[in-house]
């Protein structure tokens, strides 16, 4: 049976195919790690040409939502340590290469959204949230502190033990347990003075300059998932992003 394409803006037909595929991904009809139907099957399903279908797939592969494996087919991308390291983690030594950080749990508690969290997560001020803090080390030294804010309603049932004992990355936890897949992030960077709490964890003096990264994670429906504020000691480390 052909699937009706939602293309209300009259844009390119392949964009309608993309939206339909993204909805299948967001709804769980296509799951992380799953082999998607062949291009011929999808072209028939959406009543489009192979060329139109391929253009839609190519863009989703380029955006790392789908992964092509030579001779095997195209799969739904899954969040894992490698994906986190290469696409979402940007702190490296001044002289050295990127490596996976040691992540240590600090706290997990319920809170309410302040003005910034409300704006970034598209919720009302005062909405119940979860506030989670981790510290991340590279080469044995704590380099950054992550403060994560989640809308409690979207992550109902998430416990401190479940978060702390997750077998994979945080984004993998969102994906596997809650069916929420982060596909992109928006980041804003600024220089700030270290607070007393952050300075203690980073083993620096309060008021020393730090890099603050405010990252909003976005899901397949283009909705905000998480606000993460990373406080980075840049004495021996820096932000690095490779733009393709």
Protein model, in words:
With 244 residues, this protein is an alpha+beta fold. Helix content is 29%, strand content 32%. It has helices at 13-27, 39-46, 50-62, 81-87, 115-121, 160-164, 170-178, 196-202; strands spanning 66-69, 73-76, 91-93, 102-112, 128-138, 141-151, 182-193, 209-219, 224-232, 237-239. The chain has a 6-stranded antiparallel β-sheet. The protein has a two-stranded antiparallel ribbon with strand order 1-2. Strand 8 (209-219) and strand 9 form a beta hairpin.
**Count of individual beta strands:** 10
Which stretches are poorly predicted, pLDDT < 50 over at least 5 residues? none
What is the beta-strand fraction? 25-35%
Distance between the termini: 38 Å
What overall geometry do the principal axes of the alpha carbons give? globular
Structural class: alpha+beta
Radius of gyration: 20 Å
The number of distinct helices, counting runs of at least 4 residues, comes to 8
Order of helices and strands: HHHEEHEEHEEHHEHEEE
Neighbour order of strands in the largest sheet: 4-5-6-9-8-7
The largest β sheet comes out as: 6 strands, antiparallel
Mean pLDDT: 90
Helix content: 25-40%
